[in-house]
Write a structure and sequence with these properties.
Layout (H helix, E strand, L loop, with lengths): L6 E4 L3 H12 L3 E5 L3 H10 L4 E3 L3 H5 L5 E4 L6 H10 L3 E5 L6 H14 L3 E4 L6 H11 L6 E11 L8 H17 L5 E7 L9 E7 L5 E7 L1 E13 L3 E5 L4 E5 L2 E5 L2 E5 L3 E3 L7 H15 L7 H19 L5 E2 L31
Parallel strand pairs: 1-2, 1-4, 2-3, 4-5, 5-6, 7-10
Antiparallel strand pairs: 7-11, 8-9, 8-17, 9-10, 11-12, 12-13, 13-16, 14-15
Length: about 350
């Protein structure tokens, strides 16, 4: 369903500027809000015919604004999202949804109670290669999933407000949850701080699922080369997505048993084609579509809450030098079963890490 929804963007920084540019190209941008002169100047340059404000009030009072996309520092997400929902508008929040699990849970409850769209910016879930990979898994091309690995490595950008876990891993966590289809019950994380005290530059996070699947996520901004690679090992085949080389490859490789001995079966890797669509454009289009159709977003508030619960558990394990953290039962909501639900139009425990977007 096409949407003629009009949106406002809060924040025109490094990433917010990309959202502004994308929404403008889609013909759906009505306003931009940024408290800084630099941000407002950037917004005026990208979208010279769009209203630019230094505060959120004009946007909240504008009946023509159907939805608001928030790309501000993470510690502001909860307060801003509450104001948007209270104004009767749908809201998109960049990752992480909030820095506090209870605040994230409250946003989910508020949005559901008001019949409002709450969407989280987990960009990789809108990457056409990831969508294609999920389709291959659902079609049983890979067989039973055994383990998933994800490497997100580079030299920089080194953050001073958050560690590499919070900066990089949310993308990988959201994708792994999507592919495995459930929450892990145990998380272990280790890492090291080499550039700044108490800010981990390198982390390795292990997720253990009750269906026997394991995954590990290796993130670092202190690495000699750039690598963004996701590998999924199944009982029938294996798959690798290299986001640097822009290649999704399916390998006809596995281990068979012959006369009681494991025998590797090595087949050729076949590159899998996928649409050449920009993930951010697909993400913004999805938000617009959900505003118009009232369909629950692919990355809804529950999705953001699940990722945040895992990040907090991983942070706790990291702080205790790899002590396993078990998620409580109430931290394990269903995975994808709500994806097709629609949202009716409205009737009229862990300490916070210092993080930012």
């Amino acid at each position: 369903m096409a949407s003629d929804a009009q949106i406002a963007v809060l924040g025109c920084g490094a990433w917010g500027g990309n959202i502004v540019r994308t929404a403008k190209a889609l013909g759906s941008l009505r306003a931009v809000v940024d408290p800084t002169l630099t941000g407002r100047a950037k917004a005026a340059q990208i979208a010279p015919d769009v209203n630019v404000y230094d505060s959120i009030e004009p946007v909240l009072a504008d009946p023509a604004v159907n939805g608001v996309m928030i790309a501000t520092p993470a510690e502001t997400h909860y307060t801003l999202a509450c104001r948007v929902l209270d104004a009767g508008k749908d809201v998109f929040v960049e990752k992480p949804l909030t820095v506090d699990v209870d605040e994230a849970r409250d946003l989910v409850i508020r949005a559901d109670g008001a019949g409002r769209i709450l969407m989280v910016g987990h960009l990789l879930e809108y990457h056409p290669a990831i969508v294609k990979l999920q389709q291959l898994i659902q079609a049983d091309e890979l067989g039973k999933i055994r383990y998933v690995t994800s490497n997100r490595l580079n030299l920089g950008k080194i953050r001073t407000e958050e560690n590499a876990l919070w900066s990089f891993a949310p993308h990988d966590i959201s994708v792994i949850l999507r592919l495995v289809g459930q929450m892990p019950f145990q998380i272990v994380a280790t890492g090291g701080s080499y550039v700044q005290a108490n800010i981990a530059d390198v982390t390795v996070t292990q997720l253990l699922f009750d269906n026997g699947v394991r995954s590990h996520i290796f993130v670092s901004w202190l690495h000699p080369f750039k690598e963004q690679r996701l590998v999924v090992i199944g009982s029938k085949k294996m798959a690798s997505f290299d986001d640097v080389a822009k290649k999704l490859v399916l390998y006809d490789q596995r281990v068979d048993w012959e006369q009681g001995q494991p025998v590797p079966v090595r087949g050729e890797g076949v590159e899998v084609e996928y649409p050449n669509d920009e993930p951010l454009k697909q993400e913004v289009k999805h938000f617009l579509h959900c505003i118009g159709s009232r369909q629950r977003p692919r990355t809804d508030g529950q999705n953001g809450l699940r990722v945040l619960q895992i990040l907090h558990a991983a942070q706790r394990s990291l702080t205790t030098n790899g002590h396993p953290v078990t998620l409580s039962l109430d931290a394990q909501p269903g995975s994808a079963r709500r994806e097709a639900e629609t949202i009716a139009p409205p009737v009229t425990t862990v300490s916070k890490p210092h993080v930012s977007v």
